[in-house]
Amino acid sequence: MNNSVYSPGHTACAGCGQSLAVRLVLEATGKNTIVVNNTGCLEVFSTKYPESAFEVPFIHSLFENAAAVASGVEAALKYLGKKEQINVIAQAGDGGTADIGLQALSGMMERGHDVLYVCYDNEAYMNTGIQRSGLTPLLAHTTTSPKGSQSWGNLRPKKPMPEIARAHGIPYVAVASIGFPQDIQRKVKKACSIKGPKYIQIHVPCPLGWQYSPQQTIEIGKLAVETGLYPLIEYEYGKLTAVRKISPKPVEEYLKTQGRFKHILDKPEQIKQIQEIADTNIAFYGLRIEEQPAASAA
Amino acid sequence: MFGPLVSKPGSSRKNKTGSWRIESKPNFLKKNCLGCKLCVLVCPENCVKETAKNVFEVDLSYCKGCGMCAMICPKKEIEMVKEDKSK
User: Which CATH number fits domain B16-75: 3.10.340.11, 3.30.70.20, 3.40.20.10, 3.30.360.10?
Assistant: First the structure.
């Protein structure tokens, strides 16, 4: 009767993209799921002691070792002969995935554990006060890469996490966005049907860190995809099997929605730098609708 | 087993986060609803529920008033109305 897997009452901000993504992922995997969590916003707002928003088994250990704990859970389930019925999910934010938890994640993928790793990419350490992480985009303002007279914000482009995961040769790597909720659920269901390590990265806008009003979460997620800054792609065994085709919009449309890019809006040179990233993505993955039909087949 | 254990699933329900709403709450007009369930799909609180066929209600004891349901509704059937919580 009660089919809920993720209950209300958690303490996420209004309009939190991550709390929505977690529910979508868990609804797609169903009740027979064990969740292992890195430290991060997600762990803090969903399991404020002594309460838990999860209605599935949930383990949190350290900042970096969700992938390692999930490997152990999977090995134990295999020993008990119960792995067939139960999905194991390791989930983390972008800092817990790309910076702190990368070695545990890499180990999990290399050993071939049957675990779905979900990275909720909100592009900074939001929980501790918006510090930059490896997945913070170029020129974004954060508290450790502040805009100012000597600085344009974050100096480095995003770490290519999906490409790093793909290089491990794992069965399934996908990028999704909260702008396309049904697409997230389709990709999670597909991942659950595949045996072996899986990696899904979900783009989740954060109203607090990105400085926009809460109702725009879905719209901003969509714009990131439509400008080519966040290509939705799927890799199976290292081969690009699907991309979401777009008619690229100029990146200004995405940048002007958020306060973290406000300082570069009237600076054509800086916008050009970001446009170049989008153009590179579009050319590399063959995202454009009209042209390059050959690139999508590759 | 080490560490704090929370044995009751979904126990966060006792946090009535509806008190977080600062200015407006969603109002479901219930006139031209298509029944597409996008409002249920995109609610980050998981507090929009289908109470009868194609009748959707929001649980105001949890709604934080983010307005995502009003933004996504294709028929603009959900409006955000100002509320005065001082009373």
Answer: 3.30.70.20
